[in-house]
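Researcher: Let's run the pair from yesterday's discussion. Sequence first, then tokens, for each.
Model: Starting with the first of the pair.
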Amino acid sequence: ETIAREKALRDKVEAEMTEFFERRKQAKEKPAKKKPAKKKPAKKKPAKKKQWKRKFY
């Protein structure tokens, strides 16, 4: 009787472990999709003012 009980317990533990590892494997295979980070728009450098006027003054 004790042998049968031990075997049943062992089978139960083994089943739980295999289930756990299967779930873990599935989780690794299909990672959750991360939303792509929004890129910050590049700051435009202020245009240099043309100093052509200076020539005439």
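Model: Moving on to the second of the pair.
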Amino acid sequence: MKYSARLILFISLAFMLGGCASPRPPTYYLLEPAFVAGDPDGDGQPCMVIGLRPVRIPSYIDRPQIMVRTGRNELAISESNLWAEPLDENIARVISRNLETLTCAEVVNILPAGRSGPADYTLRIQVAAFEGGPGGEAVLEAGWSLSKGESRRTITSQRSRFTNPVPGDDYTSLVSAYSELVARLSGEIARAIADLPPTLPRN
């Protein structure tokens, strides 16, 4: 009887200590630009202004937690691995930085209700898929278009799909793979921008 009472007390204390244990603090991640040394044309002067509309992403990944693909029709949310800023804003910021490095364009963000400055061309991006998992494969699917000024008169539009292996079984490797996918999308858009006629005088 005494043994049973002591066992019950021990189990109760174990549960109490387990409940009082501090949870693991979350880890925060950011997509990073792909830096390319040097200016494409050498003088650092912009040849045009690209207005970037807010990037649209699917609602299922529009959350702080990083979403992981676990099966054909299954996704899991990681409560301990979080985006450090809204994912749509992070993608837009990285693409802006990449394009300004890869092209002679200046990229400005255009708010939904207006614009922050005059734009010679407008870039619209809608992400259809942005998912993967540690040790697996990361996927980015997006439709994008360039139009003259702020009109919807489309000059060019494409649908892009990129995949990238995730070399490690951790979230750092997954986010690095995502950054590479965004860099590849940026490169495809940059090639389209290079075909546009310059609108600003180069000093």
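Researcher: Give me one sentence on the second I can quote.
Model: DSSP finds three helices and eight strands in the chain.
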